[in-house]
Amino acid sequence: MSAHGGTKAVVAALLANLGIAVTKFVAFFLTGASSMLAEGVHSVADSGNQALLLLGGKKARRAADEEHPFGYGRERYVYAFIVSIVLFTVGGLFALYEAWHKWEDPHPITEWKWVPIAVLLAAIVMESTSFRTAVRESNPARGQQSWPSFIRTAKSPELPVVLLEDFGALVGLTLALGGVGLTLVTGDGRWDAAGTACIGVLLVLIAVVLAVET
Q1: Which of 55-69, 170-184, 195-209 has the lowest mean pLDDT?
Q2: Which of 3, 11, 17, 95 is the most buried (most CB within 10 A)?
Q3: Is the distance from CB of 95 to CB of 193 less than 8 angstroms?
Q4: Contacts of 90 (CB under 8 A, 6+ apart)
Q5: Could you give the 3-state DSSP secondary structure of residue 202?
Q6: What's the mean per-residue pLDDT of the chain?
Q7: d(CA 158, CA 156)
Q8: 173 near 125, Cβ under 8 Å?
Q9: Confidence (pTM)
């Protein structure tokens, strides 16, 4: 049941992130908002991570053989660890670089001003659906544990990874919404840069937690 639930949560997250990534990149090309670019790369990284989790789960289900008499179950943890590395490098470090670049050369959003707001609100709705699926699939395995305890002790790596990614995505979208909104109100592009930097720090922290736990 745990493996089935983990796969369902991963697939839901993958489908949501693919759709979200496209809308974020469209918003970036229309407006030039750095937080939209950071969030688009974040969604691409998350999509790749979910593909890695599915691949790890498939490899882990292989039957035991002479070389691996206890089976291939540890493949799931190897791929979950790779996910943390991808999230750290592609998601977190890229967002921090983009924030520094935008802070050095801030510019307001002058065209298609309200497109990022609409995209971010739509992304929050889609990401919330994915997060709700992850929570629902995790509850049978979690039992009476608190969420931090479940993240630390879960034997199925897919569910904690998707939970943290989706939670981080929702917080990141909120930060991006704040940065873009303040840039539109004040005309100061440094708010967009600050929101992007906060997204980068958030992703690095989540990646560190995933790396330690897996």
Answers
A1: 55-69
A2: 95
A3: no
A4: 41, 44, 45, 48
A5: helix
A6: 84
A7: 6
A8: no
A9: 0.80
Q: 194 is written with which tokens? A: 């600050």
User: Would you call 16 helix, strand, or coil by DSSP?
Assistant: helix
Helices (H), the chain: 2-31, 34-60, 75-86, 94-104, 115-142, 147-153, 158-186, 190-213
**Maximum Cα interatomic distance, the chain, rounded to a whole number of Å:** 66
pLDDT at 3: 52
Write out pLDDT tens, residues 89-129: 888 888 898 889 889 888 777 777 788 888 889 888 888 98
Q: How confident is the model at residue 2 (pLDDT cuts 50, 70, 90)?
A: very low
Q: Which two tokens stand for residue 166?
A: 């989706």
Residues in the chain: 214
Give the residue among 130, 89, 104, 113 at the shortest CA–CA distance from 36.
Answer: 113
Angle value at C-alpha 39, between 38 and 41, nearest 5 degrees:
65
- One-letter identity of residue 150: F
Q: Residue 207 in contact with residue 165, Cβ under 8 Å?
A: no
